[in-house]
Design goal:
The protein has nine helices and twelve strands. By secondary structure, it is α/β, with parallel strands linked by helices. Strands 3, 4, 5, 6, 7, 10, 11 and 12 form an eight-stranded mixed beta sheet that branches. Strands 1-2 form a two-stranded antiparallel sheet. Helix 1 crosses helix 3, helix 1 crosses helix 4 and helix 2 crosses helix 3. The chain starts with a helix and ends in a 7-residue tail after the last helix. The relative contact order is 0.15.
Length: 296
């Protein structure tokens, strides 16, 4: 058994087609077939059962175990390859979601500056899902992001930095400027400023629509959170935001959802357990491992 055979097998399972697996990997279909045959002979099990050429491949019990374990091993090998090749790196790559970056980036820069290693930071800003995907692929060393539910995975060191409520904001001239609590059904006729569908606040807005049995009327999709807030300040519409993103803003009015409809966002920091910082990165990684850690 070798790494390439595991890779070809996993890709076949995911693509559900020899032709598609070969195309995605840039090899021939017989190459995929040969890899599967070698693995089947090695483990004395067919691993994959296919009734005919047009049917989708189905895994045997042994095949399922091989797929699950191979995925783990391939990630470990990719991590090993990266860590060895970058043993002399003097950078720490951090993927931030937009909200997490605006909240935590200044404090992280300050801590690295006082430690004399601020030039080591290499930040990247993207959606939470992309930030975690980069971490998984080894394209980032640390991810700081937000989820609607706290994320847990035994392959990562994960710590929740904060839990923040999702709230409705309006401009000060909106008829609801004195309203403090609202039920989702009351929002059905409102005009919303929102982020793209892949962002946490947009997904949460869709969920609130489900609570109130309506599809949010989104009149403008803002490219940044700051633009969204600016448009609400101008009374173009209302929005759903993380409360932490408008803490010091006196130009918007905050309305909370009723207790049974409240939604929360969990800010988390994550690092692969397989990541081994080199001697240059060690001080920065220690800062990040203890970042916002509660002391007894």
């Amino acid at each position: 058994m070798n790494e390439k055979d595991m890779l070809y097998f996993c890709k076949l399972v995911e693509a559900q087609s020899y032709t598609m697996a070969a195309k995605e990997l840039g090899v021939t279909q017989p190459t995929i077939s040969s890899a599967v045959r070698r693995l089947a002979q090695y483990y004395q099990d067919p691993l994959i059962i296919q009734k005919n050429k047009k049917s989708r491949p189905a895994l045997t019990s042994a095949g399922q175990i091989l797929y699950d374990k191979s995925k783990e091993l391939l990630l470990e090998l990719a991590s090993l390859d990266h860590d060895v090749r970058h043993a002399n790196d003097r950078k720490i790559r951090i993927s931030f979601s937009g909200i997490a970056g605006s909240i935590y980036m200044p404090e992280i820069i300050e801590k690295f500056y006082h430690a004399g290693i601020s030039d080591m930071l290499e930040p990247k800003f993207e959606r939470s899902a992309a930030a975690f995907s980069d971490l998984e692929k080894g394209d980032s060393d640390i991810a700081i992001y937000s989820w609607i539910v706290p994320f847990n995975d035994p392959n990562y060191f994960i710590r929740t930095l904060d839990k923040t409520e999702l709230v409705i904001i309006t401009g000060l001239k909106h008829p609801w400027f004195n309203k403090n609590e609202i039920n989702a059904r009351e929002l059905r006729n409102e005009k919303f400023i929102a982020r793209k569908s892949t962002y946490l606040t947009r997904e949460s807005l869709d969920r609130i629509g489900e609570f109130g049995d309506f599809a949010p009327n989104i009149i403008y999709t803002a490219q940044t959170m700051q633009l969204l807030i600016d448009l609400v300040e101008r009374n173009m519409g209302i929005a759903l935001v993380l409360e932490s993103s408008i803490k010091h803003n006196d130009l918007v009015h905050v309305i909370r959802l009723t207790p049974d409809q409240k939604l929360w966002a969990y800010m988390q920091i994550a690092m692969r357990k397989s990541f081994m910082p080199n001697k240059y990165q060690a001080k920065g990684i220690e800062i990040l491992r203890n970042f916002h850690k509660k002391t007894k």
